[in-house]
Amino acid sequence: MNYQQILVEAAEVARATAGQGRVADYIPALAQVPAEAFGMALATADGELCGVGDWEQPFSIQSISKLFTLVLAIAHGGDALWKGVGREPSGNPFNSLIQLETEHGIPRNPFINAGAIVVTDRLLRLTGDAAGAVRDFLRGESENPSLGTDPEVAASEAAHGHRNAALAHFIASHGNLLGDVDTVLGHYYQHCAITASCRDLALAGLFLARQGSRADGSRLLHRSQAKRVNAIMLTCGTYDAAGEFAYRVGLPGKSGVGGGILAVLPGRATLCAWGPRLDAAGNSVAAMAALDHFTTATGLSIF
Amino acid sequence: MNYQQILVEAAEVARATAGQGRVADYIPALAQVPAEAFGMALATADGELCGVGDWEQPFSIQSISKLFTLVLAIAHGGDALWKGVGREPSGNPFNSLIQLETEHGIPRNPFINAGAIVVTDRLLRLTGDAAGAVRDFLRGESENPSLGTDPEVAASEAAHGHRNAALAHFIASHGNLLGDVDTVLGHYYQHCAITASCRDLALAGLFLARQGSRADGSRLLHRSQAKRVNAIMLTCGTYDAAGEFAYRVGLPGKSGVGGGILAVLPGRATLCAWGPRLDAAGNSVAAMAALDHFTTATGLSIF
Amino acid sequence: MNYQQILVEAAEVARATAGQGRVADYIPALAQVPAEAFGMALATADGELCGVGDWEQPFSIQSISKLFTLVLAIAHGGDALWKGVGREPSGNPFNSLIQLETEHGIPRNPFINAGAIVVTDRLLRLTGDAAGAVRDFLRGESENPSLGTDPEVAASEAAHGHRNAALAHFIASHGNLLGDVDTVLGHYYQHCAITASCRDLALAGLFLARQGSRADGSRLLHRSQAKRVNAIMLTCGTYDAAGEFAYRVGLPGKSGVGGGILAVLPGRATLCAWGPRLDAAGNSVAAMAALDHFTTATGLSIF
Amino acid sequence: MNYQQILVEAAEVARATAGQGRVADYIPALAQVPAEAFGMALATADGELCGVGDWEQPFSIQSISKLFTLVLAIAHGGDALWKGVGREPSGNPFNSLIQLETEHGIPRNPFINAGAIVVTDRLLRLTGDAAGAVRDFLRGESENPSLGTDPEVAASEAAHGHRNAALAHFIASHGNLLGDVDTVLGHYYQHCAITASCRDLALAGLFLARQGSRADGSRLLHRSQAKRVNAIMLTCGTYDAAGEFAYRVGLPGKSGVGGGILAVLPGRATLCAWGPRLDAAGNSVAAMAALDHFTTATGLSIF
């Protein structure tokens, strides 16, 4: 299959969405990104790598970091994680406190903010440096040693972080936080503020298309663990539009309000698309359109 | 792959769950089924059919009928259906009124009771006989002309149906029901009360593994429609345990409180397992265990 | 105190609200009332009666009937009523299903629709004719034998009653309805569709200002029961604006979407004001303004 | 009326509840209080003061402080307060986040924790020392210069304050907090941790029975403001049991988890009762029973 050609077509489809959606502006640092940027990369399990547009341009990965904190927390600590966080879709916006209140401080899944705070807390306990572990993993898999956290974004997140602070304190009030609230939030803001390109993320996620094996052949996750992470991405990876994403794109995917979406074709490849304008659910309009085109044109989806 | 051997093993795993869970007893007719019955069938896209245990024993399909009402409503009416029902996981128990209230009478998805009532209403409008359309389709695909509705179960559902009546009236109060409440509910109870065996259901669902093509080669759904039905099954098919089912089993599936679960291996096969005891979320304990074993042992899952 | 003079002033204040709010239009029969009508009556415990404007003009009492069903259910059956309905403010709009779902079919209080359906059910069981009992009581206390139900309004309520039917079926699904859903709803619509004037209602409510004693000196409620009904009116009588009504008016009161509000000055008098335009919470703008003026000008309130 | 005699009887009724309910133990400092302590004081508008039992024993006033922060915020800043906090019963437990989420960070009323945090914030802005203002007011009205904050309780509240911190951050995320979260919470914990006796509180609340006039004859609130504070106490003063309190006791009242309840007989007197054991809603069992006896025996209630 000529992937490069399909990416070129997908980019055209994505660019036709110009003007739709809104760039995230809840923190000033994010609002400065060029609204019509677009890039897309594909990495295959057998070593092919291609891309279109701004595919080597770093952007703020935001919630895509939640995928890597989850994976590293499982890799270091195994299934103990699931005592403190569930695996069900939330049916509510990504930063909701409502379910936390009725469900005793156990977040629904690791990909809503509350769940990612719990996962960050566990990874911090396991490694001593949660944000550093995520950064180092991304650097290693992408072979991009310059990849790192944007300090301005991290500071901006912290300065506008009352809602995440509310979530963290609420979780702590239920005894579901091992570390100190401010320290855990610090790591959370640090890994959300990592900047990486479509290329970097497609490479970094490739172990999920290789049943848990890293670029160097070593095993990060067991085969069943890798499948299960893909399952959680599918049911919970795109905020409260997971059903829509499964319906339109048909791949496990994790999105971020920086405009990136990382998707997995199990056994075969990863895709990462990026465009800053977001739909009402917080997912990139252009990246959704590009991924939709890719799976429709190729017939490659998990369904 | 020796499917028969794997089904034999899966049945052993399922039987080891004896005594776990509870038979549905909200209507008397369902409570009379033998609690430790178990059957499992597999049908492949290229015509193989095998089974173990009580795989030819008819049982009450209950919510599995929602899959077929959905498919037939799409086949007859296309995407117009989605104006009245969503495609997102509900995050709430299957008969919840809460989301209906905050979301203006548009049920979250076609597999919660509220959504299936809307779908039944549309299928009734499209065909004039919603329950008959489901029954006839199942008869045709399974080549089992004796398959039909259990009148005692249907009457029992109606007699204990205040909650479904509440849902239907509430939907009607928002103008989202085309037909008369009592008529729509009558068809809903009729198709839920169909009895069919694991064999029948595995055959009837096979078009979902064949990208929309029926047993006779005719097309029921377009390829993309079939994929999308599989996507909705994965995200919404097993009540508020869809995340857990995706995590453990990793296949699109639809369950019913009669104890059956129908699952799809896209491009390859369907599986139907049945055991009356249910877990807290309303899914069969034995069927879950058997399907979990199948995908673990074969490595066949969509992830 | 020259009550007549104060009523004249209150009517001026009320008329200054002309154009504010909207006449209830959820049923066509209610929408036909003259929007700028206004009347107000005062009846004292020692026999004085006065009024201004359209105070002898009958209007649809709607939810004010809930006060009389409650009082008659207590008078006939005592405290057994409270097993099936609570006494707390709901904090949600008057026809909400949400609390019913989380609170097992026990409505929060007798003045939300769900609670009034339960009270109607109990009064039906106690008297054999719930709507007739309310009508006969109002006729007797007001010495107005022509007072009765508007059949057009009752039919219109029934025809647009899906939401109340949803409530009733939901309550029945929790086993909290003794009678048949349709029969109970029939009586509910009948008593809501009674037409009475400000004069009639002020006289009919006077036993609440006389510690439970009727016009003929006989006792309808014990003294403590009468006080407690006043307490429930204050905390729950004006939908989800009970706090605002207590804050502004400072009297126990019960409102209806027909635009009437009946208020009680314990030990002293009753007031009934009427104006069809409603605020967002469903209470009459003009009646609220008139009652607010009355308590401010006289200094008479319970606080 | 021989108030002293009625207090003696009320104390007997209260002591008959021994063993019922549980002493608040969410902070260790509160759990150490003698569970069977009981006191009750009455102060009249014309200067009478009497009491029974431990009526001069200081206890932790906890949420009763919310009444005084409210009153002082109104006295210093007037009605501007109501832009940031509502006046409706919440229908949910006192520390709920749910309504904050659906109602954009505007707490339902000043007596739930969220509302009291907003009021504390405003009082801090108005006076520069919110906790000091409350303490000084209580000292002045009670003529008890030794009255003050228990530093151990305040420190304990702060150490176990994750839920209040969650509320404050959530309110701040909606822009409804003028001051710094930690500073506002510090003042909140300080005024909740004030210790005062039934005697002190009955005297301090007397302005509410005197239409806004303080002990020295100066005016703290306008007459209408005082009435309105009484109205808010009635509809919102006893957590989610305000309906029950109005029904049983029939007076405006404000309770605290330290076991105290301060109640007002407008125009006549104040009552303060104290017993550490709490019912499920967080109100003192003994104090409720004593106040219930008082209003039943005397016939004095607002209804």
Task: Please sum up the structure shown.
The first copy, chain A, is an alpha+beta fold. Helices cover 46% and strands 12% of the residues of chain A.
List the defining traits of the structure above.
alpha+beta, 10 strands, three-stranded antiparallel beta sheet, 46% helix, Beta-lactamase, 303 residues
Verbal overview:
- Chain A is an alpha+beta fold and 303 residues long.
- The first copy, chain A, has 13 helices and ten strands.
- Chain A starts with a helix and ends in a 5-residue tail after the last helix.
- The model of chain A has no long low-confidence stretch (mean pLDDT 95).
- Chains in contact: A-B, A-D, B-C, C-D.
- Chains A and B meet through α11 and α12 of A and α11 and α12 of B.
